[in-house]
Specification:
By secondary structure, the chain is an alpha/beta fold. It is 32% helix and 21% strand. It is built from eight helices and nine strands. Helix 3 packs parallel to helix 7. The longest helix is centred in the last third of the chain and has 17 residues.
């Protein structure tokens, strides 16, 4: 623990805790301070002016990161027949119907994203208590309930990230790895922020995007000037 504390203290040196950095400068600082012995994930968090306890202030959506996420995403697909064949051809890791239902009910959830064709939702709905708390329940709003399973699987494998605002009004996501070129990380972050901005709910009042910060898995957070991220 003492070693970790020393590392974190060293990472914080030179950071002004109240300063808002441009996104380019913030990414440079994050990359410099990512000293863990693995390829850390770069994460962005956005504080939004919403209260998600109200249905008209819920923020949810999906963003296709232009440069991918750097993650290996395991995808499960509930489908039958030709659509199941499409899913396998697109690279889905697990494909099934009642057999997949039984696997999940048995407690084996060896996937990061779950996709289903609309006709499978009565079956998948029985897994709500299992998949829901893990954020894995397929939903048409984020493109995981669809007849285009090939496109959905390709998107998940290629770097699409889902987002959903938390109780405190914060939305966050991993947007790449510290090994990515800085300009690719900036491009991913701008794409994510744009997707969140477009998902602004009707009930949002006042300033929608209030604060933005970036960090790496083991590094300190760096506050970002929102105007250097938001395109409009």
């Amino acid at each position: 623990m003492a070693r970790e504390g020393k590392r974190i203290r060293a990472a914080r040196e030179g950071l002004e805790p109240t300063k808002l950095y441009s996104i380019a400068d913030a990414i440079a600082l994050v990359k410099e301070r990512a000293t863990a012995k693995f390829d850390e994930t770069v994460e962005v968090s956005m504080n939004l002016g919403v209260d998600p306890r109200h249905a008209d202030q819920m923020v949810r959506g999906v963003c296709n990161l232009p440069n991918g996420s750097g993650r290996t995403v395991r995808v499960a697909v509930f489908a039958r027949g030709a659509k199941a064949d499409d899913a396998r051809a697109a690279g889905a890791d697990i494909v099934g119907a009642e057999d997949l239902l039984e696997i999940v009910q048995g407690g084996k959830i060896d996937f990061d994203r779950c996709i289903a064709t609309p006709d499978m939702m009565p079956l998948v709905g029985r897994l709500g208590k299992v998949l829901g708390p893990r954020g894995l329940m397929p939903n048409p709003k984020v493109g995981t309930v669809t007849m285009d399973v090939k496109g959905a699987v390709a998107g998940a494998k290629g770097g699409s990230v889902e987002f959903r605002v938390e109780k405190a009004g914060i939305v966050h996501a991993g947007v790449g790895k510290v090994s990515f070129d800085a300009d690719k990380l900036v491009e991913n972050i701008k794409a994510f922020a744009d997707a969140v901005a477009k998902a602004k709910p009707a009930g949002a009042k006042g300033t929608y995007v209030q604060r933005i910060a970036v960090t790496s898995t083991m590094g300190p957070g760096v506050k970002v000037e929102p105007n250097t991220v938001l395109t409009a």
